[in-house]
């Protein structure tokens, strides 16, 4: 049976996830200091720079040791440590990790035990994978849709949901250039041929980065990369003497990273992309794109989509030269999260079209529940939940249970649910699951409550593709599980909302607003909702402070004018103009920054640069 780390440590008052994060971060930091002087590490640093090398291997090491630390935290919270016989050993499958961890591992609690039998199998699998990759790399890339004329282009990652919401196309339409290539992903399903035709009719080129990202005849970018310039440079510079197990592992991870770098270098040059907009969180791909564009003199751009909060120095894994964020980066992205970001450009959050559409839908949703008798309405936003993050199944089910009972207990109450994923609330087979926990995370008891609540007509479930503002505009106040992106976006629209962080993040900067904006338990939430309801029903001229973000809204979005897409489009156009003038990458960014601050203020571009000068002699 899987143990959910967020449900561990509740008796101590510290969520097991945060215990795991802090110990994993501490151990990782120590290991990095141990391996930084090893020859393969130094060789890679000389090619891609110390910041990116450190960030890459910090994430790699932490990924390897995190499950071990999780097992340790589960054990110390569930076992009587005064009796060592009850403490099981933690099995380590990689000998080099065992060697690196042994001296730094806590002396109390379960100890590590090495299994040497697994390493040879790992090496065989790696050799087979490299053989397959080398074979595929011999297949040349084919592009039906590659640019026919020489021009500096903007590449933009895009999935089906982005096209449906039209969120990307809004700022693309505002660009001063039509030199855009949409790079299609299948993360949210394939893109229909009709949608693809509509995009191409606007003179936007498309290329599939994933197989079957789009329907019908499509331009799929194969894995073939031809000459591996960056990988070969590393292999020519590294020592050929016999390596230790940890050095062999560093070599393997460096080769995997640089193979991806060469893939992206080929992709960017073949498609003439100088500016690439991505949303990648996975650290290896993000870093590979950044290195590739550095070597090709290009610029990687990241656009904020959600709220990031630091957790004990956790690794957010954002890699880019320019990051568009809604407001103050400390609030928006988390500046202490080991990001590889050179410049933060404050663009604001929303656009006018989204706001107008959300208001219209919100009013229609409000009318539906009001017709059924609701006089006071809450919108709620759940959050991701899994065994390895800060929100566990207990928190999620408790969150829904409290609020569903609230709407059932009073005919004046209305509830509008905007789920993160519709899968979480599927009702079709809720009563056919019997004793098994549903795969969609919600318990059978909560499903039954949900069915009863919907039957009243005072509870609506929106589609996951709806913007969260749609639900917020329908409500008197909104409640989000955790430090909620949806609540932040609603607050930027001057709508009331409260964060329900049952995980009690110790690094949360909203703790200064405890019991007005941030709540750590559901009983306090329900009391606050009752208080605010009394103010609303009474029609008080001076309503309560509950959910009122006015004290920090300028930190979340200093503009609040609905022109975020205009600012993003302007800045990206400045970048392309710089390349058209023949500027180098650094001058292109400097020129764009000057133009942006002259229009929007010097505090709207924040430098975080510690730039390594890349040189490629191929």
Please summarize what this structure is.
By secondary structure, this protein is of the alpha/beta class.
Describe the fold and architecture.
The chain contains 21 helices and 16 strands. 45% of the residues lie in helices and 12% in strands. By secondary structure, the chain is an alpha/beta fold. The strands form three sheets. It has an eight-stranded mixed β-sheet with strand order 5-4-3-6-7-8-9-16, sandwiched between helices. α2 runs parallel beside α10.
- Fraction of residues in H or I helices: 40-55%
Give the spatial strand order of the biggest sheet. Answer: 5-4-3-6-7-8-9-16
Main sheet, how many strands, which sense, barrel? 8 strands, mixed
Mean pLDDT, as a whole number? 83
> Which structural class should the secondary elements be placed in?
alpha/beta
Low-pLDDT ranges: 312-316, 427-440, 610-618
Per DSSP E runs of 2 or more residues, the count of β-strands stands at: 16
If helices are DSSP runs of H or I spanning 4 or more residues, what is the number of helices? 21
Strand content: 5-15%
Overall geometry? globular
Query: Radius of gyration, rounded?
Result: 26 Å
Amino-to-carboxy terminus distance: 53 Å
